[in-house]
Amino acid sequence: MAEDTPPSCSSDSAILRLHQLLASCSLSIEAGDYSGSDRSVSELVDFLNPVSDSTAREADDEDAERKAFRILTEIHRCMTSPSLSQEVVETLSFELPKSVCRVACASKRCSDLAECFIDSLLEKCSPREMLSILCDALSSPDKQFRTTLYYAPLLSGIAKVLLRIQRRQFQQVKSAVPVILRILNHTTLEMDDEDPDADYGTLFFKAIDIANSIQAVCEKLTDKQKLQAFFGLFILQLMALVSIDSRARTSHFLPIVIHLSHFLHLCGFSYIGLITGFDVDRISNMMVQGE
Fold this sequence. Notes:
Blueprint: H1 7-30, H2 34-57, H3 62-79, H4 86-93, H5 96-103, H6 108-124, H7 127-139, H8 148-161, H9 169-189, H10 200-220, H11 225-245, H12 250-266, H13 271-276, H14 278-290
Helix pairs in contact: 1-2, 1-3, 1-4, 2-3, 2-5, 3-6, 5-6, 5-8, 6-8, 7-8, 7-9, 8-9, 8-10, 9-10, 9-11, 10-11, 10-12, 11-12, 11-14
């Protein structure tokens, strides 16, 4: 009778296969073989999908978590290698963020490593393209991956990439904010309160990081009125989402409310203006006039 394959052997064979797939991607991309590179990248994604599916099904499987961490470590090592060409990095950046964040659902340390991987892409790839890639990955996970561990690296990446965009900042922020709000709305209304990985506070603090980035962009612009008005609406919507979620976790969300209140004052809101609706009407009219 054949013996079961030890977990370490299974992990070793997976790493070997990963190296082969990454090498195949690199060779075909650098050779300008477009059909071959598309096929190689698809094979890499197809290899990663069962890994993430396994960790999603067996959340407490330590062997699956270790395998996922090893795979993410190797991907990060490969993508940060000085020998990897810019063309290869850019090509893989279109597909890997989503696949990597799916695998990252295995554990908190995997999610942290996925954030490092995304940071490495931000260093090398076009900020505008990366913003689009991250927003796409945020908005399209399968149901089993709609967790904090999946979303956190992507939100962190958006906070960082917004600071790198040099042109058409308002349009870029305007395209990203609805995606962010949809994710936060999902976490407040649909996620299972009993889910041990449902660390809602983490996602709201990531949203605050994004708000800090938008505020920093505002400060650099000479014509900032429209972006600042949009920023104010973003903060008000965050406050509304926090108020929904904080019914059962008021003390947990107090630091978040304090941060958001600070932003309200930076946007020129007053408590009187918010109570009467004057401030909301003012910035809403500003947004309409700016269309």
